[in-house]
User: Fold this.
Amino acid sequence: MKKLLLVMAVSLLAACGSLQTQQPPTPLEANARSGFDTFAAGTLAPIGSFEWQAAPTYTQNAVLRHNAARALQKGSITLETAEEIQKRTDRVRELLDAAVKADALKMKEAVLLLESAKQKLGAAQALLGAN
Assistant:
């Protein structure tokens, strides 16, 4: 019985190895075939922590940067608008990092910094939406 299981395990591993000979398509190839943008973003944080509260804003900030780059590529926004969005999202990231650091130091300003980051992110999102 053990030999049979060993043979099955070896054959499964061999099959897995042969399946991996063909590389999956790159995101650009997949986009060309499907017409869909395959970008995904997320932020990891311990559940219930302050970082958990900040995680959606970190993720939205990353998505905004991506969307601005795509809009620039498509010619939907100007280079100046893209640079302004990048500058604003850099500031949002600085505020988020400062908020997480302040929370780690048990400072009450952490929540205020997070709220400021959310407001500035909203203003940057509006800039992309205005074009």
